[in-house]
Write a structure and sequence with these properties.
The complex is a heterodimer of chains A (369) and B (296).
Chain A (H helix, E strand, L loop, with lengths): L3 E10 L2 E11 L4 E5 L6 H9 L6 E6 L2 E2 L10 E4 L11 H11 L4 H14 L15 H13 L5 E5 L7 H18 L2 E6 L2 H7 L2 E6 L2 E6 L1 H6 L4 H6 L6 E10 L2 E6 L2 E4 L11 E6 L4 E4 L5 E10 L4 E7 L2 E7 L10 E6 L5 E3 L6 E2 L14
Chain B lengths: L4 H29 L3 H4 L15 H8 L3 H8 L14 H31 L5 H13 L3 H13 L6 H26 L2 H9 L4 H12 L1 H17 L2 H6 L6 H6 L2 E2 L2 E2 L1 H26 L11
Antiparallel strand pairs in B: 1-2
The chains are: A alpha+beta (369), B mainly alpha (296).
Chain lengths: 369, 296
C-alpha cells in the first residue's frame, strides 16, 4: 500500500495540451474516483499513473518514490481495463498466475495465491475454464483477480464496469467496494458514471477539459458543488438552474426570474442588481398545494415508483421537482413549489463559480499533501 | 423470422447445388485419372462409370513405370507414344520442399513484421504500409527479367532455395497485411496488461499476443502454401531440372498429344498435400480465438 502524489502534471500530444497541471494527493488506502465526461483526461491521468503514457511535465510519486521514469512493471501497480484485457488463450488460473510465472515465483506459492484470490472473488469453480467460457461479470472478476494476486500498492481501474449490463454493474460495484474494504489497497478508479462515483468513492475528483473542477467527499460534492459544471454533472435528474437578477422586494432580497420571485437563503452574499443562476436540486423543491411557494405550471408528470418527477414551468424556465407524496397532477395544473432555503446554491453565470452564503464552509477545491 | 419448411428445404437444395458445382471438376478429374485412355477419348459419348478402372495413370506418374513396360505387361500397345518422362515423384518432393519452405519463411517474417506494424508507432508507418500494399499491385511477370538476372548472378537459378525466396517475396506483402489485421483485432490493452504484469516486449509477443492470433497464423500459412503449391510463372522461368507440379503438368502436353490420363492422375495427387495441410490447421482456422479477452 502506498499514497499517490500528483504534482503539477501536464500532458500534451504534440502541441495539444490535454491535462493542464493536475495536483492531487491520494492518501494511503483511499478510494479515489476520477469522474468526468469523456475527453476530460481522466483515463489519460490514470494511464500516466500506470506508466502507460509518458508524463509531459510534473511529477507522480507512488509511496515516496518518483515514478516518472519507472517502467510500469516496476511501479507495483495493478490495472483493470474496461475490456478486461484477459489473455484469451490461457485458463483463468494461468491468467491470474501470469505475472508470478514471469517472476519465477515457486509453483506452490503461485497456487496458494491464485486460490486465495479465486476464493475472494468466487472464481474457484472456474479456474480451469477459458475466459471465453465465462460471463461478463466473471471475466471482470478474473481481471480483478489478476490484479490482486500481485499484492500491488495501488489498484487502477479504468471504467471497469461500463461493459456490464445495469444489474451486474450494481452487483460488481458492491463487490469492488467490498474488495477494497478487505484489502484496503489505495485505489484510483476512473468512471464517467456519477452513480458509480458517488457510491464507491471516499473522495471524488471531478475533471473537465484537463482541469480539476472539484475534489471532495461524495456528499460534499453533491451538497456543495463548487461550480455550475459540477452542480449539473452530479445528480440525476440534475440540479435546476433558473437565470435571474437579485432585486429588493418588500424589504428583502429575492431573485427575479422572468417576473417570478424566488426566495433567497438568509444571509446570501449578493447585492441588488446582481445577475445570478439560482440552483436548486429537484428533491429540494416541495410541491405545495396551498399556494405558499413559487407558482409553476405542470408540463410532464413521471411516476418512477418510489417518487414522482414533476416537470414544470416557472416563468418560462423548465424545472424538475421530485416528491414522494402521491400527488394527483395532470399537465397544465397550477402548483406552487417551496424550495428548501438552506439548499439553494447561487452561481455567478459568467465564471460559473458558486456564490457562497456566509454560514457555509467554502467547498474543498484542492487537497494538498 | 421463422423459416417455413419449404424455405429450409430450398436453402438445403441451394447449398448442395453450390457445393456440387464446385466439387464436380474435382470429381471428374479424379474419375478421369482411373480411366483407361479408351474411356477418356470415347468418341461416341461421355463415359461415366461404364469403364474398367485402371491404375496405369498412377503407375506411370507415381511409380515411375515407363509406358513401354506397361504395354508389354498388358499386351496392349494402344496409345504408346513419346519418350517424355512422366515420373513425377521428384516433382512432388520438390514442390513440397518449396511450398513448405516458402510458407515457413513467409509466416516467420510476417508475424514479426506485422506485430511491429500493428503495435509500434514510428515515422513513416502509414507510408510503409502503403508501400507494402503497392507490392501487391505488381504483376509477377513484371519482375521476371530482373529476377532471372539477379538469380543468375547469385547462382540461385534452378535451385529450390531460389524458388523459396521468390515465393516468399511474392507472398510477404499479403501475409504481412493479413497478419496485421489479426493483430489489430487484439486490443492493445492486452499488451499493456501484460506489460504491467511484468512481461518484456518479446514475452508479450511470444507468450501473449502470438498465441491469441494462432487462427490468423494458420489462415496466412494456408494462403501462402496454396500460392506456392500452385505457382506457375516464376517456377517456369527460374527452373530447368527442378520442376514444380504446375510446370510438370504442362510438360504432359506434348507435340504428339496430351496425356490426359497422366495429367488427371498427377492433378488428383496434387490435391492431397494441400488437403492434408488444411486439415491440420483447420481447427486453428476457426475464428473466435480472440473472443473472451474482449467485451462482446
Amino acid at each position: 500500500m502506498a499514497s499517490v502524489t500528483i504534482n503539477s502534471v501536464r500532458k500534451s500530444y504534440g502541441g495539444f495540451e490535454v491535462l493542464h497541471g493536475i495536483d492531487l494527493s491520494i492518501a494511503n488506502g483511499e478510494f479515489v474516483v476520477l469522474l468526468g465526461p469523456s475527453g476530460c483526461g481522466k483515463s489519460t491521468l490514470l494511464r500516466m499513473i500506470a506508466g502507460l503514457e509518458p508524463i509531459t511535465s510534473g511529477q507522480i510519486s507512488i509511496g515516496n518514490v518518483v515514478v516518472n521514469e519507472l517502467h510500469p512493471k516496476d511501479r507495483n501497480i495493478a490495472m483493470v481495463f474496461q475490456n478486461y484485457a484477459l489473455y484469451a488463450h490461457l485458463s483463468v488460473f494461468d491468467n491470474m498466475a501470469f505475472s508470478m510465472q514471469l517472476k519465477k515465483v515457486p509453483k506452490e506459492e503461485i497456487r496458494r495465491k491464485v486460490e486465495w484470490a479465486a476464493s475472494i472473488l468466487n472464481l474457484t469453480p472456474y479456474l480451469d475454464r477459458q475466459p471465453r467460457q465465462l460471463s461478463g461479470g466473471q471475466r471482470q472478476r478474473v481481471a480483478m483477480g489478476r490484479a490482486i494476486v500481485r499484492d500491488p500498492s495501488v489498484f487502477l481501474f479504468d471504467e471497469p464496469l461500463s461493459n456490464l449490463d445495469a444489474k451486474l454493474r450494481v452487483q460488481m460495484r458492491t463487490e469492488i467496494k467490498e474488495l477494497h474494504h478487505k484489502l484496503s489497497t489505495t485505489t484510483v478508479y476512473v468512471t464517467h458514471d456519477q452513480i458509480e462515483a458517488m457510491t464507491m468513492a471516499d473522495t471524488i475528483v471531478v475533471l473537465r477539459d484537463g482541469h480539476i473542477e472539484q475534489i471532495g467527499k461524495p456528499l460534499d460534492i453533491y451538497d456543495r458543488p463548487a461550480n455550475l459544471f459540477v452542480a449539473e454533472f452530479i445528480g440525476s435528474p440534475s440540479m435546476n438552474f433558473l437565470s435571474g437578477e437579485v432585486a429588493a422586494e418588500a424589504g428583502r432580497l429575492v431573485v427575479r426570474a422572468n417576473g417570478v420571485s424566488l426566495p433567497l437563503p438568509p444571509g446570501a452574499n449578493v447585492t441588488a442588481g446582481q445577475v445570478v443562476k439560482y440552483g436548486i436540486r429537484p428533491e429540494h423543491l416541495r410541491p405545495d398545494t396551498g399556494g405558499a411557494g413559487i407558482p409553476a405550471k405542470v408540463s410532464v408528470v413521471e411516476p418512477t415508483g418510489p417518487e414522482i418527477h414533476i416537470y414544470a414551468d416557472i416563468g418560462g424556465q423548465e424545472i424538475c421537482a421530485i416528491t414522494q407524496d402521491r400527488l394527483e397532477l395532470a399537465p397544465d395544473d397550477a402548483i406552487s413549489l417551496v424550495p428548501a432555503l438552506d439548499r439553494i446554491r447561487l452561481f455567478d453565470p459568467t465564471t460559473g463559480k458558486v456564490i457562497n452564503g456566509p454560514n457555509e464552509a467554502p467547498p474543498r477545491t484542492l487537497m494538498r499533501a | 423470422m421463422q423459416e417455413t419448411f419449404w424455405q429450409k428445404r430450398l436453402r438445403d437444395v441451394a447449398a448442395v447445388l453450390v457445393v456440387g458445382i464446385f466439387m464436380f471438376p474435382l470429381f471428374w478429374w479424379a474419375l478421369t485419372s482411373f480411366k483407361p485412355t479408351s474411356a477418356i477419348f470415347d468418341k461416341d459419348g461421355i463415359v461415366w462409370f461404364n469403364f474398367k478402372p485402371t491404375l496405369v495413370n498412377y503407375q506411370v506418374t507415381m511409380l515411375g513405370k515407363s509406358r513401354a513396360e506397361l504395354a508389354i505387361e498388358s499386351g496392349n500397345t494402344f496409345g504408346v507414344g513419346g519418350a517424355s518422362s512422366y515420373d513425377s515423384r521428384q516433382t512432388i518432393i520438390d514442390s513440397l520442399i518449396v511450398a513448405v519452405g516458402a510458407t515457413a519463411l513467409t509466416v516467420l517474417l510476417a508475424v514479426l513484421a506485422s506485430y511491429a506494424l500493428s503495435r509500434m508507432r514510428f515515422y513513416g508507418r502509414q507510408a510503409y504500409l502503403n508501400w507494402i500494399l503497392s507490392q501487391r499491385f505488381m504483376p509477377p511477370i513484371a519482375i521476371i527479367v530482373p529476377v532471372v538476372f539477379m538469380f543468375h548472378y547469385m547462382s540461385l537459378l534452378d535451385t529450390r532455395l531460389g524458388l523459396i525466396i521468390v515465393d516468399t517475396l511474392i507472398n510477404l506483402p499479403i501475409a504481412v497485411l493479413l497478419m496485421k489485421s489479426f493483430y489489430d483485432d487484439v486490443p492493445v490493452d492486452v499488451d499493456e496488461a501484460a506489460m504491467i504484469d511484468g512481461a518484456s516486449r518479446l514475452q508479450i509477443f511470444w507468450r501473449v499476443v502470438l498465441p491469441m492470433v494462432k487462427g490468423g497464423v494458420a489462415a496466412t500459412a494456408v494462403l501462402c502454401f496454396i500460392f506456392s503449391w500452385t505457382e506457375f510463372l516464376l517456377s517456369l522461368f527460374l527452373t530447368n531440372s527442378i520442376r514444380t507440379l504446375p510446370v510438370k503438368i504442362t510438360t504432359f502436353v506434348t507435340s504428339t498429344g496430351s496425356e490426359w490420363g497422366f495429367i488427371a492422375a498427377l492433378g488428383t495427387t496434387a490435391v492431397i498435400p494441400s488437403f492434408i495441410f488444411i486439415l491440420l490447421v483447420q481447427k486453428q482456422l476457426v475464428r473466435g480465438l480472440t473472443l473472451g479477452s474482449l467485451k462482446e
